[in-house]
Amino acid sequence: MDPYMSVFFMFTVSFPEAMVISYFVITFMGGKPRLPEIILIALTQAVVAFIVRSLPIAMGMHTIFLILSYIVLICLTARISMWASSVGIVIVFIVFILAEVSVTQLVTAVTGLTMSSLVNDRYNRLLFTVPTTAVLFAAAFLFKKFNISFTGITGWQAIKEKYQVVPDPGSSALYKEYLPAVVFILLPSLLLWLLNFTYVSVQVNDYGGYYPSLFKILFNTLIIMLAFMSLWAVRRIRRSIEKEMEAARAAETIDRMKELIFSIRKQRHDFNHQLQAVYGLMETGSFNEAREYIKKTYHYVSGAGELIKTDNPAVSALLYTKIGIAETRNIKFDISIDCSLEGFPLNGNEASSLLGNLVDNAFDAVGANEGGDRLVRLEITAERGEYILEVANRGHLEASLSGKIFSPNFTTKKGHDGLGLAIVKEIADRYRGVIRVSSEGGETAFRVNIPFKR
Questions:
Q1: Which of 210, 193, 169 shows the shortest CA–CA distance to 57?
Q2: Three-class SS of residue 31?
Q3: pLDDT of 116 strictly over 60
Q4: Would you give the end-to-end CA distance of the chain in angstroms?
Q5: What average pLDDT does the segment 359-385 reach?
Q6: CB-neighbour burial class of residue 227 (10 A; exposed 0-12, middle 13-18, buried 19+)
Q7: Rounded percentage of the chain residues whose pLDDT exceeds 90
Q8: Per-residue DSSP letters for 38-70?
Q9: Quick one: what percent of the chain has pLDDT higher than 70?
Q10: N or C: which end of the chain has fewer CB within 10 A?
Q11: Is the pLDDT of residue 344 over 80?
């Protein structure tokens, strides 16, 4: 039996310790601790600790059993998910272990006692268990005071507010998503605890209830597990980052689509007024003015109408944004879409990047032009098993530059990084596409052919 445990110590040490840990876990994971629940968890955990430490098992196995017991008790009593309980216990136990490591080293330095006397003498052991619990209580108090929580550290609250994410009550998706990050961040602390644990075991060295060979196997097994957990955590973190980036792009696309729908609704609402204006001009004999009015109105209405044909929200959202940019820069942006992009092989991010760079390049090219030369046109068609995207602008491209413009960092514009067209070519090559540039008749055109999906 562990000499540390007795009924007296069960209530004077284990019970207060369990109260602090339970309170810390529940508040840190966003729950609302209630005193009766905390007392119930602490009493049950104290009894479990008494039983576990009375069993003839190797040193260190006690902690594993106690952690599992905490997880189950907090999940059942505080009514938070098993994942939340697990994540909270892992984090708080790491804090507890670090506090214990620091206090133990300080006590041995100040009192001059050996580690063996601290571990094997129940009263000496109070010298580091009581201060450790006090440090943990201070940490819990500071976390509560400054509103430090799991959702705050991971940034989930900001993500939830920005993208209006409302998880189902009791959902464990949040903790599953961020558990790899938590594990990865806390692995160094866990390794520190293992090293300190080894130090304690070696100093005790009387083998009273300890099993060096079993501990050696356990220690090596945990080190191997840490290595695999590190690889798993890094992989999951990368996937989580990709998902968050995709969610951000999707949210931006939705915002642009909402603007597009609002614009079309506004056009429909104003259509009667436009007809009345045209009718009035014709009734007064102002046919030329009526023609110009219809021409401008048609151009304004047809731009948004063309975007509907894409059947691709990401492309429609991007082009709607570019229409607004063209208006602010006084550039005429003609769009002609003769096919659906519903089966377009590029994903939303790639399609936006390819078209966006081509259109931006054309806008910059006509920026110095005047009058009717401030024109950019976009045509999207499909024929002979491939999509054809053509972006053209008024202006001439020197023949000597046609072979260089797709090279990374090559640019003729001051203040540009020269990556736009290189990115376009890289995306086209990825999908076995071909990009060509031509400059004739006072117009420079970039034509990208992307084969259909096979």
A1: 210
A2: coil
A3: yes
A4: 69
A5: 87
A6: exposed
A7: 14
A8: HHHHHHHHHHHHHHHHHS---TTHHHHHHHHHH
A9: 64
A10: C
A11: yes
What is the average pLDDT score of the chain?
76
Q: Work out the burial of residue 36: count CB atoms within 10 Å of its CB; fewer than 13 is exposed, 13-18 middle, 19 or more buried.
A: exposed
pLDDT tier at 358, thresholds 50, 70, 90? very high
Q: Strand pairing of 443-451 and 375-383?
A: unpaired
412 residue type, one letter? T
Dihedral angle, C-alpha 29, 33, 39, 40, nearest 10 °: -70
Q: Write the DSSP symbol of residue 412.
A: S
**Helix ranges restricted to H, 284-330:** 287-308, 313-328
- Residue 404 pLDDT > 70: yes
* Whether pLDDT at 186 is above 70: no
Say how far apart CA 373 and CA 367 lie, in whole Å. Answer: 9
Domains and CATH numbers, the chain: 7-210 (no CATH), 309-454 (3.30.565.10)
The DSSP line for 77-144 is HH---HHHHHHHHHHHHHHHHHHHHHHHHHHHHHH---HHHHHH-HHHHHHHHHHHHHHHHHHHHHHH
pTM of this prediction exceeds 0.70:
no
Distances (CA, A) of 23 to 37, 141, 233, 284: 9, 10, 28, 82
The C-alpha atoms of residue 68 and residue 66 are separated, in whole angstroms, by 5
Contacts made by residues 426-430, CB under 8 angstroms, sequence distance 24+: 427/346, 427/350, 427/353, 427/354, 428/354, 430/350
Coil/strand/helix, residue 447: strand
C-beta separation of 254 from 320 below 8 A = no
Short-list 180, 179, 19, 159, CA closest to 84: 179
- Provide the residue type at 154 as one letter: T
Instruction: Compute the half-sphere exposure of residue 7: CA atoms within 13 Å on the CB side of its CA.
Output: 0
User: Among 40, 110, 98, 30, which residue's Cα sits nearest to residue 70?
Assistant: 40
Structural contact between residues 427 and 373, judged by C-beta atoms closer than 8 angstroms: no
The DSSP code sequence of 256-297 is: HHHHHHHHHHHHHHHHHHHHHHHHHHHHTT-HHHHHHHHHHH
Do the Cβ atoms of 2 and 209 come closer than 8 Å?
A: yes
* 353 phi and psi angles, rounded to 5 deg: -65, -45
Inter-residue contact 17 to 95 (CB < 8 Å): no
Phi-psi region of 314 (alpha: psi -120 to 50; beta: other; left: phi over 0): alpha
Q: How far apart are CA 95 and CA 192, in angstroms?
A: 12
What is the model's pLDDT at position 164? Answer: 43
Best CA proximity match to 334, nearest among 322, 342, 344: 322
Asked if residues 322 and 353 have their Cβ atoms less than 8 Å apart, the reply is no
